[in-house]
């Protein structure tokens, strides 16, 4: 039987049921925005990709030590579609799961998750705190400075770019574009 398609409002309600930390919620929005942006360019379902972005770190606030495994438990309990669970868990490939990103949406999620954090950190460094005029090369410079936003795993981003067969420059630019479209919900201009 076909599982009814999840609406954004439902994904958002679930995110807010498990999360109250502003920066974690903002991260979910950033990943959602970029996922929707890429879905459009791949000609795929924007809401589906976006919901996966919204929910990818569902368990992180409450169960940081069981990241990904608790998301699996929660989503299985709620009878989520297996494909959606797989896609969400694949973002933790090599870190907290052994589920390798295979589908385009999985590869994109894996690649841009950490990158959205680097871009947000770069925006916060700007006097205008705005993404409007943020250039790819400014983010690239921060990418190449390991001490800047040191928690951002550059290796994951690079291996994701390899999976997608795209340059890191291109992916950074697309990520900026996606986040710029939703600056309003990211708390930036
Ligand atoms: Fe995660
Ligand atoms: Fe994340």
UniProtKB/TrEMBL annotation:
Phylogenetic classification of the source organism: Bacteria, Bacillati, Bacillota, Clostridia, Eubacteriales
Cleaved signal peptide residues: none
InterPro entries documented for this protein: HD_domain (IPR006674), HDIG_dom (IPR006675)
PANTHER family documented for this protein: HDIG DOMAIN PROTEIN, METAL-DEPENDENT PHOSPHOHYDROLASE
Family matches, as Pfam families: HD (PF01966)
Domain HD stretches: 25-115
Protein name in the entry: HDIG domain-containing protein
SUPFAM superfamilies: HD-domain/PDEase-like
Organism of this sequence: Proteiniclasticum sediminis
